[in-house]
Amino acid sequence: MASGAGRRRGHELVPLAALISREMKNEKMEKPSVRCGHAAQSRKGEDYFLVKTDCQRVPGNPSSTFSVFAIFDGHNGNAAAIFTREHLLSHILSAVPRGLGREEWFQALPRALVAGFVKTDKEFQSRGETSGTTATFVIVDAWTVTVASVGDSRCILDTQGGGISTLTVDHRLEENVEERERVTASGGEVGRLSIAGGAEIGPLRCWPGGLCLSRSIGDMDVGEFIVPIPYVKQVKLSNAGGRLIIASDGIWDALSSEMAAKSCRGLPAELAARQVVKEALRTRGLKDDTTCIVVDIIPPESSPPPSPLPKKPNKLRSFLFRKSSRDSANKLSKKLSAVGIVEELFEEGSAMLAERLGIDEGAGQTTSGLFTCGVCQVDLAPSEGISVHAGSIFSTSSKPWQGPFLCAACRNKKDAMEGKRPSGVKVA
């Protein structure tokens, strides 16, 4: 799990503004087209998905169109999954400041995604229902892909050159040591289910509640140290494009990322999604709800299906995510494609809200002079807002008079998520 906003492991980070400026000034690349398909098999009726390809950064401006794809895998009922599908997108967009240019829009998305996830969780918990859901939420805007996720649904990227990368982190207590440590430090207990005679069975779970995940939306009866703060990753694809496979754990419990990607290469998106589901059912059977969305990001003047790998690929070229141009007659296109490396723009997985919202002198201030809560966007008078950094020790440079600011309810939620007050809501 990454620590430190915008860091890259082992590589120097290229500023997002510089990348976009370079693209606009030097490459003059057209926007890719986006094709998608989905498929599902239901066992419990708790998987839901969202596909919306007509969103606009600037209302009424078709050139600002972007797409959203998401999967919500519910548990203990479907109420949380349905609520999240209906409200998460609007909560995220309401947290993005108005009037931003394209560069600033990309830079604002990670913070807005965190705010939107937390607001959705807070609103759903206020309803008094005890179900929960994973959420894997993907925004595709031209060549830039931004993914936010809680739980164990997954999004992978399969590039034209054959490189496969995972754009999410699984928040399963069994595999994620850092999350186990965070949950116990915040007041939860982690252990297996005990049966008669004291024997322990099954995966690691968080108690009270017995949830196998450390992050989700909802789950008010488990404890608020099970947080809705998402892992966020943002990448910029090369002009070779790529394929996203977004799926619930009904897929990933049966198939590895490599198996899923290879099972559907050469197929258009709709058939590819069906093939991934078919392969998962062939491997494991229908033991869980099984949902898959395939999204192809296709270069201009290119055929929709990604080409299958050759039998003996160049390992070095695949590792670097490189791909030769499809049109050898076009020297400029060939030159651009030859250096088609996927750029990692942002990665952060901290569960600390103060760290994820950052420090901003003028955060949330409106034209009327009022401030807005950094999470739920309600108006605050200057004397009402509580800095997200008040009492925070995550950074010695934090100052309690600096924004973003939180309303009292969101400050209480922040404290609960960090184990600073009794968490969880007693349910009769």
What does this structure look like?
The protein has 428 residues and is an alpha+beta fold. The chain folds into three domains: 16-171 and 225-348, PPM-type phosphatase domain (Phosphatase 2c, domain 1, 4-Layer Sandwich); 177-212, no CATH class; 353-417, no CATH class. The chain is 27% helix and 25% strand. The chain has helices at residues 16-27, 79-94, 102-125, 177-185, 249-252, 257-263, 269-284, 315-319, 331-338, 353-357, 408-417; strands at residues 33-41, 47-56, 65-75, 132-133, 135-141, 144-150, 154-159, 164-166, 189-194, 200-207, 217-218, 231-236, 242-247, 290-298, 343-348, 371-372, 379-380, 386-387, 405-406. The strands form five sheets. Strands 2, 3, 4, 5, 6, 11, 12 and 15 form an eight-stranded antiparallel β-sheet that branches. The protein has a five-stranded antiparallel β-sheet with strand order 1-14-13-7-8. A hairpin with a 2-residue loop joins β5 (135-141) and β6 (144-150). α2 (79-94) packs antiparallel against α3 (102-125). The longest helix is centred in the N-terminal third of the chain and has 24 residues, at 102-125. The radius of gyration is 22 Å and the shape is globular. The model is unreliable at 1-11, 22-28, 303-340, 393-397 and 423-428 (pLDDT under 50).
